[in-house]
Protein: 4-diphosphocytidyl-2-C-methyl-D-erythritol kinase
Amino acid sequence: MMTAGTTVQHARAPGKINVFLKVGAVMEDGYHDLATAYQAVSLFEEVRATTASDFSVEFSGSIDTSGLATGGSNLAIKAARALARTAGYRGGVHLEIEKNVPIAGGMGGGSADAAATLLACDALWGTSATKDELLAIAATLGADVPFSFTGGTAIGTGRGDQLSPALAKGKFQWVLALADFGMSTPGVYQELDRHRDRHAQDIFPAEHQPSVDANVLQALRAGDPHMLADVLHNDLQAPALHLAPGLGKVLQLGEQNGALAGILSGSGPTVAFLVADADSALELQVALSASRLKVVRATGPVHGARII
Ligand code: C5P
Structure:
């Protein structure tokens, strides 16, 4: 699969939906203790890595990428540099990233760039890192990066980076309503903290450990969208709606037009609607588009990062 000396390598990694997300207490490192169920979905970031003497990135794809950072703060560049450091590789890489996951949408697009970059650079440079080594680097880059690497369906705890695979049957169908603005993940977590500070009864005691509802695992195992629709949950939804109240109308619109349920994806602002089948997906897509929303469809679970 990986041939050292090849001058270009192409890797692909998926975006994700958190079908369940409970946020616990703030930990010492400033991150929140989480319990989440991730599902990788069929929107893929495509990363092509070419040998170069320094580190650079350019973007293309189905979405507007003009606002993205291309310097050292870009997560893909950070991923490449982290692997080079760990492996003792002295050269660089030029990355061409075709983006298909909404930007700053709560679907882990930046994390997918990082996961695919790790694989592509490993192959390009012939560093032969093990999967565990790449996962360890992934965890230093962001809470969702290890999941984009492994894909499928998984439970995430700790920051969201401690993964255990979960059984899932069949494919779930999603209709995604994209917003024309991005949301800051730290901003949404801070809004949740502010809300909990204001309402003392909502504060989690330090020892409280969030966990994934057993009904979520059962619905995923059964491959039953009706069951899953009943248990979709995201603690970040209320604070995100507080910051962007218009998302409430989007959720309502989807649920009035055939969605089994809607949920904010991660920290938003993408709203993910679970539908029963392809016909309802099409109907919902038409209804949301008629309200001038940008809509894409996806299915999950799908595989994690891989070399193409
Ligand atoms: O790791 P990542 O870059 O995705 O996280 C972005 C931000 O989201 C963190 O800096 C933190 O403010 C917040 N976060 C958190 N607890 C988590 C994951 C993310 O507070 N478990």
Summary: The CA atoms of residues 20 and 233 lie 5 Å apart. The chain has a mean pLDDT of 93. The first strand starts at residue 8 and ends at 26.
